[in-house]
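Dear U.,

For the methods section draft, I wanted the exact inputs and outputs in one place so we can describe them consistently. I've listed the two proteins in the order they'll appear in the manuscript figures. Please don't edit the token lines directly; just add comments below if something needs changing.

First protein:
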Amino acid sequence: MASVAAGQEFGVAKGVKIWSVRINDCDEWTYTSTMSAGLEWVRTNHVKPAVANFSWSLPAWLDGVAPGSVHHTAVSLPNAGVLVVVSAGNTGGSACDRSPANAYELMTVAATDANDDRASFPNSGCSVDLFAPGVGVSAAQNWGGFVWPDTRQRPGLSSLNYGMHLAVPQPR
């Protein structure tokens, strides 16, 4: 995610500062209360101008809109001066049924394919604000080098066989 946003080689916003807010444990597990706490940390500690970018996609019935929910906390960020960009989700259903993608206060992004057509996997619907490349996006690896959107090997680099939204990564 960070390399797509601000990577020296391929980043769309080279030179920006990025703060990572960890909300998952080592097994990639978390609770909605931990997600909300991470968002609250961003709300109280951000430096303007600020953009929060995350790819959480929860069933709206699970999250709700009550104080303390991910939805409630996420929609409080724009009022604090943070632009929030979220994934529409990758279940092929309606983004209107996903939280926080269904929040009109946030910018909800779905994926396009290499032909700039809607990809086969992203959610859609009235909650989607824009589409961004989501299949075969080049990105840095956390163990060094880069992953590429095709099967050609580049010197010292590996191949990428899943997609990412440029705005909101979702491995695919």
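Second protein (the one for the lower panel):
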Amino acid sequence: MSATRTSFLPRAWRRGLPAARLMPIALLLWAATAVAQSPTLTGTATSTRTITRTRTPTSSTQALLIVGSVPALPGDAVTVPVTLDPAAQTVFSARIDIQTEPTSTVSFRLVANAPVCSVNPAVGPVTASYACVVPLGGGCRRIRAIFTRQDVPLPGGLLFTCVADVAADAALGSYPLDALAAEARNSLDQPVPAGGADGAVDVVDEIPPSPTPSPTRTPSITSTPSDSPTPSVTSTVGLTATETVTRTVTPTHPTDTPSTTPTLTATVTLTPSRTPTRTPTPPIFASPTATSGGSTNTNPLITIGNALGVPGTKVTLSVTLDPGDRAVIGTRNDIVFDPSTPVARQVGGAPDCAVNAGLGALAPPSFDCQDA
């Protein structure tokens, strides 16, 4: 007890007070120390569903397909927006997959086995297709959307929306919508840098109110009068100069009389001349050598046609068959395209080719890209 007592009292107090008076103070300090060292903690354990969404950084030059985040009540149906930010790219076609969690808490709505999605009418004419890649119960966990157009690039802004259903027993929290397999192509159907940004369905107990616009006071320019200095007349006391008229003698000199001298002026006359105009020469195309109808023992000939096109457009090439004097029941040939004029491809990657509809009784043709 003496150690506790002497650590809180100065030496002068210890000398001037008897031991009987120091004892209650020491007991009080010891009791306060004991209480401070014996706290009682109480708490209630709670569980909260917390999901952290991390958006992958993207380049400022690549096109970006952004899945929106929307609030919802349990049992609600919400509209999920997807916007396109083309950035520095010229996007003529876009593709993206959107995937929910493996549970059935949030799933995309299906009608006739197709997602309930619609393109933004402000986008203009566009070919859109929607498919359910991973079904989930009566809905769909992963959907795929593909958009293509031919004349002008896809504009930036809202591209399309899809309907998602929230389970009635959904717990409050955030349910991610992952943006997968984002892809964009230019007018030549070549891939351009592109990425996707994730969204979410945030299940809440109350939908937050929409922001209400408030009037903004606009400052007006008010002219402020200012005092202008008034000129004052200052009188000077002293000598004043007086004008004096003085007669000055001016000598007279003879004056030369000018004479007119004619000046020769050169005049330039323009003579029109005829400028030769270059006449464009049509390009020279390779032409196949025709097979004479009366010739015998001639081999079949497959001919690839010619086409004219401007940069950024698509052209159609015709391939014809001259059987000669042979009975041809099937053909197979490869066509090698220049890298600057690649063959157009369909959504699945196959070349955009079609057989002549006028040919009947044909086995189903096949077209493949060898460099795929």
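Candidate sentences for the figure legend, describing the second protein: The chain has a mean pLDDT of 76. DSSP finds three helices and 17 strands in the chain.

Thanks,
Y.
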